[in-house]
Amino acid sequence: MASEGGRKQFWKRSGSKVPGSIQHVYGAQHPPFDPLLHGTLMKPGSKPPTTPVKLKKVSTFQEFESNTSDAWDLGDDDDELFAMAAENLNTDVVMETANKVIQNHSKLQEQHKLQEEQLQEDQSVQSADLPSVTYGDKRLVKSVSESHTSSSADGVSEYSSMQRSQSLPHAPTAPVEREMADHNTSPTSALTEREASRLDKFKQLLAGPNTNLDELRKLSWSGIPKQVRPITWKLLSGYLPANVDRREGTLQRKRKEYFAFIEQYYDSRNDESHQDTYRQIHIDIPRMNTEALRLQPKVTEIFERILFIWAIRHPASGYVQGINDLVTPFFVIFVCEYIAEEEVENFDVSSLPEEVLQNIEADSYWCMSKLLDGIQDNYTFAQPGIQKKVKMLEELVSRIDEQVHRHLDRHEVKYLQFAFRWMNNLLMREVPLRCTIRLWDTYQSEPEGFSHFHLYVCAAFLVRWRKEILEERDFQELLIFLQNLPTMHWGNEDISVLLAEAYRLKFAFADAPNHYKK
Amino acid sequence: MAGSEAGKGNGGFRIILLGDSTVGKSSLLRCYTEGSFIPAPCPTVGVEFYSKMMDLPPGIKVKLQLWDTAGQERFRCITRSFYRNAVGVLLVFDMTNRKSFEHITEWYHEVASIQLMEKVVFLLIGHKSDLKSDCKVSTEEAEGLAASLGMGFIETSAKNNTNVDLAFQTLTNTIYEALKNKEIDLQEGWDGVKVIHKKNCNPQKKKRKTQEKCLC
């Protein structure tokens, strides 16, 4: 309990700093102001909601709102964006997109008319100003904002928090949507206004002639709509140039380059010097858990080539188990460029034209390479990157949740015993593929996402299970729990909460090394 | 509190499985602890933990802490830290994979370089015995190797659940006998064997200091 108190006190202090930090956030919708988290920040000291401190917070929050409102306001800032875009964009394109959005909106509004009428009167204002959410999300949204506004006194902040909850991309996701195992948005027919507007913003940014990568990162931080995810990933990873005119040429050149590698190296896979590498890859791929993606021979061959070429070209690490997992998200997403995402399951990849498959293969190779460039020390001799990060994780957890840390320590659970895999496979073994994909939206939007930010995600992930961890009373139970975390039904909203928490930790600790030092 | 871990049994043995990639270490463990068989489980990364209680003939319960390890060379730095605290080692090879058999001596020396041999009980396992027609290692040859390294040999199959329990029982019995005959030296600070009377002191407290608040 004492440690609990210490923790609260600690967070209260850093909590007061949080509002000022918001400017650094990638993505205006970044969730540091997730009501859930906000609740945690507000809790310490349990001050009545109307104290001056609170009001000050509210005003800081308003600053935050005004700084970042572009992500959710459907009104003014859209004009601004249009104005910005108009400089670069063909007006016809803009108008076309705008019309689509408007059409979408009116369709949706019709759909929801009936629902709307049944909703409580007190929401009528809101529904006029704010997008309605499908599947009765409204009720959810309301409850979320209510839990927040119960601690805020004035209408302004109520409105803000309302907006904020709406702006959290996935927090209010209804079960139906969730069951569809969607990646980011529900099917087009069910696009909410907010989603449509987000998609529109992505499309405008991507249209060029020069994509503003900083803006793209900000927007992508809180999740990329599946319709634009392939191209956004290629841009964020640094594979595609920001300049639209250069993209096609770059793609052609890189694809050619990759197949030249194959030409050059792939025949050597059975040579004495390389056969161990190839054999390991060859036996590992059929053992992968790729979930929706069927490991048909065509896919297996592609994965083998990608991994073998990468290994040969990176002798310092070579092929290490776990790297194979990293191909899957890229491959799946790039396949989705050519088929509807719902079809990926049991899709016969070999039915795609050979040329398309080659493009997918080369793109997956290059994007995976870019990712691995940032974490290669995870896989070099003695895996120093992982050892270092596991140590940092331990250090970090001991600071943020001493109770959990002490509990693990008391039962002689070593971080290396469970977190090694978290680092080596970037949590891919711990969460479903759809969650990994969502996680990577953010990782690719963060500077050093896969290396540095991942550490904070791991810390948030561990602490996420604090209740269960503290309930386990012996070494075996603890370790077996930590090796089999119940994330099977996780969706975007779980990842969003995790990312928000990770961001909060990063902000509190990253530039404050003394937080680490005991 | 300190005794809680051993409270349910009379002690615990830490056992580690070593051998090349895809010889079937994880399948062996899954078969033993869960009674299930998955044809191609994901490659083990680093180490993975399983546990099971075992009854030894004289009415003694032993908790087995079973450590699965990654076979790939690159993980050896990580897995090595687990050798030290093991009292039992199953050296596993795939009977249909000659190389995995040839590497057994390497794995043996790998342990020997970290751990004092008088503390460890080994057992050689020839796995995938259900694939007789593909066998690349004869029983005689494997027995010969086991004898030369001073250990027993058992052929197992997780697919058919053949001899899997026997393998773990044999290893556990041998450890127990060795302990009884004081052939295994129980040292302070070594965790290969947990015995109740050794568990009543908990050195955690001295590690904890009151937490200094951060100064940043």
Distance between the ends of chain B: 37 Å
Strand count, sense and barrel status of the largest sheet of chain B are: 7 strands, mixed
Number of helices of chain B: 8
Strand content of chain B: 15-25%
Overall mean pLDDT score of chain B? 84
The whole-angstrom Rg of chain A is: 24 Å
What structural class do the secondary elements of chain A suggest? mainly alpha
Protein model, in words:
Chain B: This is RAB42, member RAS oncogene family. Chain B: It holds the Pfam family Ras. Chain B: Keywords: GTP-binding, Lipoprotein, Nucleotide-binding. The complex is a heterodimer of chains A (518) and B (216). Chain A has 518 residues and is mainly α. Helix content of chain A is 65%, strand content 0%. Chain A has 27 helices and no strands. With 216 residues, chain B is of the alpha/beta class. Chain B contains 8 helices and 7 strands; from the N terminus they run H-E-H-E-E-H-E-H-H-E-H-E-H-E-H. In chain B, strands 1, 2, 3, 4, 5, 6 and 7 form a 7-stranded mixed β-sheet that branches. The longest helix of chain B has 17 residues, at 164-180. The two termini of chain B are 37 Å apart. Classes of the chains: A mainly alpha (518), B alpha/beta (216).
Keywords:
heterodimer; A: 518 residues; 27 helices; disordered N terminus; B: 216 residues; alpha/beta; seven-stranded mixed beta sheet; 8 helices; 7 strands; 31% helix
